[in-house]
Write a structure and sequence with these properties.
With 972 residues, the chain is of the alpha/beta class. The protein folds into four domains: 71-300, Rossmann fold, CATH 3.40.50.300; 318-522, Rossmann fold (3-Layer(aba) Sandwich); 533-639; 816-970, Umud Fragment, subunit A (Ribbon). It is 38% helix and 18% strand. It has 30 helices and 30 strands. The strands form seven sheets. It has a seven-stranded parallel sheet with strand order 5-6-4-7-8-3-9, sandwiched between helices. The chain has a seven-stranded mixed sheet with strand order 13-16-12-17-18-10-19, with helices on both faces. The protein has a seven-stranded antiparallel sheet with strand order 24-25-30-26-27-28-29. The longest helix is centred in the first third of the chain and has 26 residues, at 226-251. It is globular and about 105 Å long. The N and C termini lie far apart (77 Å).
Length: 972
């Protein structure tokens, strides 16, 4: 038996408060409250349980451990407080639990979930029909699942949703008592409900029967924002929302406004839903939406967790280094360069410089060898946090080289997503698996836990949610701030019987900034300045007066957007797109005449969206004009042209590192006990207009950088995105788009691909993904800059396709030829309608070649059997594939299908644009692993044109679709 501290906490820290009347012991609550007869029986019946864990030991063997778990005081108090409140108040209320790391949150959620699922009110009626546990992680939290499952052994009580939105829809319809799912599945549930009703031969509405639901949210600081969270409210609001909207539309005599009123209602509180939000790091929005008067319903602080030794103080031993250097210009001329972009390029030049990497490697390895390896009984491990994937690759190579030279018994692993190409070694690619001697991504945590490996180098992976008690030391070479700093450094705080302390060596960050980031959450977050609703109306007035849009355009757009789902058609997307075009044209004129005013307008749009998105969750607005404008601006903002980015620079041949020195500048504890924490303020206005590019001579910029005696580490995160450009450069469809489109149209195609690249990596790059998806200003800057880089590289590369095309019209024309046997697949291929191709080319060896016309093809691809030319009709793939373009296809598809533009034959559905059972779209699949190996959990066929919706196939089974051919390029 292991006894844990069982204190109430005193002043936000450990211990127990004194009796206010001075009549009793500080510990009297134990026998008066906890061990009181009814309380003790409640503990035996509902809390104490046998927890079974299965882990691998140092030899890789699976070891099962069992322990009887008794709740700590704050867990018992929090669960009882929330259950009592829910019993008394009933559905329709929000609750916030701010529990630090080390609080045992997974068990607290499990206890609460089961109590809510069986909760009855004073009249013995069930309070909730279902309890839904929601996480925003793409992969369900395994520990959370296991804990909830272990608390209930009756079949059918708990269901985890780990496959598709259809699985979630079926569970919701069946009112499964406890459902565990991810937030990302909710946007697709309404369509699945319609499909299920259709399969039963019913006229569905896409809504659930009204049920009272308790929604338990894990990591609420990142789960409550955005349209996905609003979709959750709409799905669970069910028929109640629909009836409320019907009643209001009837009152106003406008039945066509039912969906609009429903959209407004889903943003606020709903009478049938209660939210129980858990987080260690709340934001202002979290406190406002889920808290009571800006305070959580229950709090267990970081301070108390540290003082009770449930976590370690990661700031106790914190050492910082500074880099001193001098750059010199080596080129004879002194070109003018755009200051900001060139400064970033110089920062990147220094970050990746071999001497910089080698010097830091020596410091880290020697510290590990001398200090860290002797900690935790000789089993201590270290993590190196790098600023980009390429940095991780360079550090891995440098670590292995230095360790081998010294003969140290240290082995390292590296963690990064995708494929990395090093511009110093053209044609060479690096992957996590290849650099880790074949260790797969899912195996890496277990491998790192063994005694074979001591150091893990990471690039935007394992910085949140990674639990490894043997992790003692962190070497930081990446800019950290705010919540990201707290989450990353907190990887060290897990306890171990032999672990007495931790150590951080930071090459980048300022001690005071790290202290301020932690101080916010040390004794509990406080809500700062409130948001003034009047400012939202003022911004709306300024936008209305700008003349960019007209009221009738908003009305026309919204009349289509808010049509019931059953009446929507493919033509609706085109009509909504057309409704936006006049406003886009006016903005384009403004941008051409006064770029600064255009950027100010864009900033006001973002400010209105931020303010309304937040305020509509806490204020029940009745003004439908606000909702209409919000929806209209959401789509308009994504369509108006972006400001051109600055030039991209590489200074490998123009600049040389002349002087370099790495020096320790501070060490010791960063104290959190002194000073005041910074309150969390609400959403602010964004956008201050255009920051004009300033050109300076390269020599002057180098002097300015040298004067600072350090790099512009604030841009370290940008280096990660440089590598995504490299991944985009391998996309043939993007290459073709660059060849036949002006930069503005190319950016539209690029943004579509870019979002896919981020979505594919969202679980591995959580912080950057969340910021990219939620921070519009950040997303615009990143997308525009990367698009410009890719476009210019495509247009100037040796294998660029085509020439300059200003109008978007494709060059060239098809020429029919005889297609003699000697010419076939040498200079010409068959000309095949897509409908015929979808059948004929499924089996390339059976194609009747004499049944088709033959066309001459000039292409960089080597012709072979299975290739054909076909016309592609429709606007869904514009501008990558213009309506009516002739394209070269190849069957069968070679290698991976992911991200490729493909011809697909559909079995049970049709392309909504053409009505045909074949389509040309970008292919994206999500896979899961089960006992039979890997299988598709969802396949999405993605259009390039944002005016069209993707085709999503859940629970893909044999024959649902057939991949016929890959689209290689547009030829005419």
């Amino acid at each position: 038996t292991r006894f844990l501290p069982f204190n109430k906490g005193d002043g936000g820290g450990k211990g127990n408060p004194a009796d206010p009347q001075g009549r009793n012991y500080r510990t009297a609550y134990l026998w008066e409250e906890v061990l009181e007869r009814d309380s003790f029986l409640d503990l035996l019946a509902r809390f104490i349980h046998l927890q079974i864990d299965e882990k691998r030991d140092d030899q890789g063997r699976k070891v099962k451990t069992e322990q009887m778990v008794f709740p700590r005081y704050h867990q018992l108090q929090a669960v009882r407080l929330l259950v009592d409140a829910a019993r008394t108040e009933g559905p329709g209320h929000n609750y916030l639990v701010e529990h630090s790391a080390g609080s045992g949150k997974s068990n607290t959620i499990a206890w609460l979930t089961h109590r809510l699922a069986s909760l009855h009110d004073a009249e013995n009626k069930r309070v909730f029909d279902s309890v839904i546990v929601v996480t925003d992680r793409v992969v369900l939290d395994q520990q959370l699942q296991d804990n909830i499952y272990q608390f209930e052994h009756k079949r059918g009580v708990v269901q985890k949703i780990d496959e598709s939105s259809r699985q979630l829809a079926e569970a919701l319809e069946s009112a499964v008592p406890i459902i565990i799912t991810t937030l990302q599945k909710f946007p697709f549930v309404s369509r699945q409900l319609l499909k299920l009703a259709e399969e039963r031969g019913e006229a569905g509405t896409g809504t659930l029967q009204t049920r009272r639901c308790a929604v338990v949210i894990d990591e609420a600081h990142s789960s409550q924002g955005g349209e996905t969270a609003t979709d959750l409210k709409e799905v669970l609001g069910g028929e109640t929302l629909r009836k409320e909207a019907q009643e209001r539309s009837a009152e106003e005599g406008r039945e066509d406004l039912e969906e609009l009123f429903r959209s407004m209602a889903k943003r606020g509180r709903q009478a049938n839903l209660s939210f129980f939000a858990f987080t260690a790091t709340p934001k202002h929005k979290t406190l406002k939406v889920f808290g009571r008067n800006g305070e959580p319903n229950h709090r267990y602080t970081m301070k108390q967790a540290i003082e009770e030794r449930f976590i370690l103080d990661v700031l106790q031993h914190y050492t910082t280094y500074s880099t001193y250097y001098k750059l010199v210009k080596t080129c004879e001329d002194d070109p003018n360069v755009e200051r900001k972009q060139a400064a970033r390029a110089l920062a990147r030049f220094l970050k990746l410089h071999p001497h910089n990497v080698a010097q830091k490697t020596e410091v880290m390895v020697e510290h590990f060898q001398a200090v860290t390896r002797h900690k935790i009984g000789g089993r201590a491990k270290a993590m190196v946090v790098t600023g980009s994937r390429l940095e991780a690759v360079r550090y891995k190579q440098s670590f292995d080289r230095y360790i081998k030279e010294k003969g140290y018994a240290i082995k390292s692993l590296v963690a990064f997503s995708g494929t990395v190409q090093d511009d110093k070694l053209p044609g060479v690619e690096y992957t996590e698996v290849s650099m880790n001697d074949g260790t797969r991504e899912k195996e890496l945590p277990e491998k790192f836990a063994t005694q074979e490996y001591q150091v893990l180098l990471v690039a935007e992976k394992y910085q949140t949610g990674f639990d490894q008690p043997l992790l003692h030391t962190m070497y930081v070479d990446k800019r950290l701030a705010g919540i990201q700093a707290v989450q990353t450094l907190s990887r060290l705080n897990r306890t171990h019987p032999l672990k007495e302390d931790t150590f951080v060596l930071d090459f980048v960050n300022d001690r005071e900034e790290i202290r301020e980031a932690f101080k916010v959450y040390y004794e509990g977050a406080a809500m700062g300045e409130e948001v003034d609703p009047a400012r939202m109306y003022a911004i709306k007035g300024e936008l209305d007066e700008s003349g960019i849009y007209r009221e009738e355009e908003i009305e026309r757009f919204c009349s289509i957007y808010f049509k019931p789902k059953q009446r929507q058609s493919a033509l609706d997307h085109q009509a909504m797109n057309a409704s936006l075009d006049p406003a886009v044209s006016r903005f384009t004129v403004l941008q051409r005449e006064n770029e600064e005013d255009a950027e100010l307008w864009r900033g006001k749009v973002q400010a209105f969206r931020n303010l309304y998105g937040f305020l509509s969750q806490v204020i029940p607005y009745q003004d439908s004009d606000l909702e209409r404008l919000y929806v209209f601006l959401r789509y308009l903002a994504s369509k108006v042209p972006r400001r051109a980015g600055g030039p991209a620079y590489q200074f490998d041949d123009e600049v040389r590192l002349e002087y370099y020195r790495l020096q320790k500048i501070s060490e010791g504890s960063i104290s959190l006990k002194e000073g005041e924490a910074t309150p969390l303020d609400g959403p602010k206005e964004v956008g201050s207009g255009l920051v004009r590019a300033e050109e300076v001579p390269l020599s002057q910029l180098i002097d300015l950088v040298n004067e600072r005696f350090g790099t512009d580490f604030n841009q370290a995160d940008q280096l990660f995105f440089d590598q995504i450009v490299e991944a985009a450069m391998t996309d043939d469809g993007l290459r073709q788009a660059a060849a036949v489109n002006p930069k503005e149209k190319f950016e539209l195609v690029f943004r579509n691909l870019l979002e896919r690249l981020f979505v594919e990596r969202m679980d591995q790059n959580e912080e950057i993904f969340v910021r990219y998806m939620n921070d519009g200003q950040f997303r615009d800057v990143v997308s525009r800059w990367m698009s410009t880089q890719a476009y210019e590289r495509f247009r100037t590369s040796d294998d660029a396709v085509g020439g300059d095309v200003d109008s978007g019209v494709l060059p060239g024309a098809l020429r029919i030829v005889a297609g003699s046997p000697s010419e076939r697949y040498v200079t010409c291929v068959p000309l095949v309608p897509l409908k015929a191709a979808a059948g004929a080319f499924s089996e390339p060896q059976n194609v009747d070649e004499d049944g088709f016309e033959w066309v001459e093809v000039a292409t960089r691809h080597r012709l072979r059997k299975g290739m054909f030319v076909a016309p592609v009709v429709g606007k869904s793939m514009e501008p990558a594939i213009p309506d009516g373009a002739w394209c070269l296809f190849r069957a069968p598809i070679e290698g991976t299908r992911q991200g490729k533009t493909v011809l697909v034959q559909l079995r049970d559905s049709a392309d909504p644009e053409t009505g045909e059972r074949y389509t040309v779209k970008r292919y994206r699949s999500e896979k899961i692993e089960d006992e039979d190996g890997w299988r598709h959990s969802r396949i999405t066929l993605v259009p390039v044109n944002p005016s069209f919706m993707p085709i999503t196939l859940d629970d893909e089974s044999e024959g649902t679709l057939q991949l016929v051919a890959e689209m290689l390029e547009v030829i005419a």
